[in-house]
Amino acid sequence: MERTVIIPALNPDEGLGEIVERNWELENQIILVDDGSDKKYERLFWELGEKCIVLHHEENRGKGEAIKTALKYIKEELWECRVVGIMDADGQHLPDDMEKLLMKAAAEPMALIVGEQDY
């Protein structure tokens, strides 16, 4: 897939499943990074692994390191990837908004597209 969404997650709530599902419907490759979540979240990550690539950190290393882990995976394994978006696991970012950013980025090669929220 040309579009990949990275989602770093630490002890996520049930809303993460909806975020993954919607990105799946939008035909985005999803890389979910379990950043050292508690054992009780193992099943959630396992279930979400049916629709996305799940990478694991044994201990919490922080959001930045989780993003680096995903970017390294993309570089080494997803050669067809041309556009990368990064979303939070808590529902702060909507998949449909991410889709708009990904489409804009696809039309602007070599660009960095940054979204912002208006409150």
Automatic annotation (TrEMBL):
Coiled coil: none annotated. It comes from the Bacteria. SUPFAM superfamilies: Nucleotide-diphospho-sugar transferases (SSF53448). Residues 4-117 form the Glycosyltransferase 2-like domain. InterPro entries: Glyco_trans_2-like, Nucleotide-diphossugar_trans. It holds the Pfam family Glycos_transf_2. PANTHER family: DOLICHYL-PHOSPHATE BETA-GLUCOSYLTRANSFERASE, GLYCOSYL TRANSFERASE. This is Glycosyltransferase 2-like domain-containing protein. The lineage of its organism: Bacteria, Bacillati, Bacillota, Clostridia, Lachnospirales.
